[in-house]
Amino acid sequence: MSGRGGGEAARPSLETVAERAGVSRQTVSNVLNSPQLVRPETIARVRAAIEETGYRPHRAARTLRTRRSHLIAARMHAPVDGINGAVLDSFLHALTSRAEQRDYRVLLYTAEDDAQEIAAYDELLSDFDLDAFVLANTHRNDARTTWLAEHGAPFVTFGRPWGVEASHGWVDVDGAAGVYDATRHLIRRGHRRIAFVGWPEGSGVGDDRRSGWRSACAEENLDVSGLTRSVEDSLATGRAAGAELLNASCAPTAIVCVSDSLALGVWTEITARGLTPGADVAVIGFDDTPTAAVIGMSSVAQPVGDIAEASLDLLTQALDGAPGGSAAAKQLLLPPSLVVRASS
């Protein structure tokens, strides 16, 4: 009888995975440590074999061999109104899940603002053997990326470096294209008075999304005078903006919003007047939160899983010292998709 409890199965090894995937041991190692060296179809086959066999690398030995901790830090943002921030929650979940598939772990931390986040960087780098950071919610004059670059800490951002040129890797969603598609959808449905509820000017993300609405309306020579509102992001401000638009002498028949938070506020005002979203006034949000799906509100969905995967690809390339090629090779703009529901 075995001294390990009657024939306990041996722990799966690198060779076990290689045999299951039909590749060499070195290829499995490359998938785990340097995926940019391996073809996508081979990566998929090896990861499937890892999942099937339950293989887990020995972390201590791997750290000694690669001089990496395989630990990535990312900020967890506080929830605001149950809707605002849902995309970042989904992104963190996708990032953590996909990082685990590459044998990385995500260390979460909190901060109230940029200053606290930068202070957290200093503390985290002192207390943990971090490999890299993943940042989100980029904005104009973002001091966080400047600090990390000056201190030589590898990082990638979910969001563009608005208003400046940057050499670091970033992944973002083409918000202008998403709102453009939403507005074109409404035009095809026969709407000519299409309003936009956005954030105050100066927000890189908000200005980008607003430009998609303007472009689509300009193509059809639609009159947009008096059809835009700029407010802070909340249900209450969205409802107030919706009330102003609907009270106008020539009210819109459709309203596109920069976020689901504002769109839900508009939705609330529409229903409070005894009107039906979609039948009487169309409304479309942005982010395709679970709330939007539950109430049947059309919204622009961000490819959160693809963003997380691309962010990790850029990080591993940077950590491996792989040639980045052109700056564009480290800067990815992904297309969103319009999810049409009853509200439009």
What would you note in describing this structure?
It is built from 13 helices and twelve strands. The chain is of the alpha/beta class and 344 residues long. It has a domain at 175-301: Response regulator (Rossmann fold, 3-Layer(aba) Sandwich), CATH 3.40.50. The longest helix has 17 residues, at 304-320. The radius of gyration is 24 Å and the shape is elongated.
CATH topology of the domain at 175-301: Rossmann fold
Strand content: 15-25%
Biggest sheet details: 6 strands, parallel
Number of strands: 12
Shape: elongated
Order of helices and strands: HHHHEHEHEHEEHEHEHEHEHEHEE
Broad CATH class of the domain at 175-301: Alpha Beta
Looking at the overall shape, the CATH architecture of the domain at 175-301 is 3-Layer(aba) Sandwich
Integer average pLDDT: 87
Distance between the termini: 69 Å
Rg over alpha carbons: 24 Å
| Number of H/I helices | 13
Structural classification? alpha/beta
The CATH homologous superfamily of the domain at 175-301 is named: Response regulator
Low-confidence stretches: 1-8, 58-66
Region (Disordered): 1-24
Pfam families: LacI, Peripla_BP_3
Domain HTH lacI-type: 12-66
Protein name: LacI family transcriptional regulator
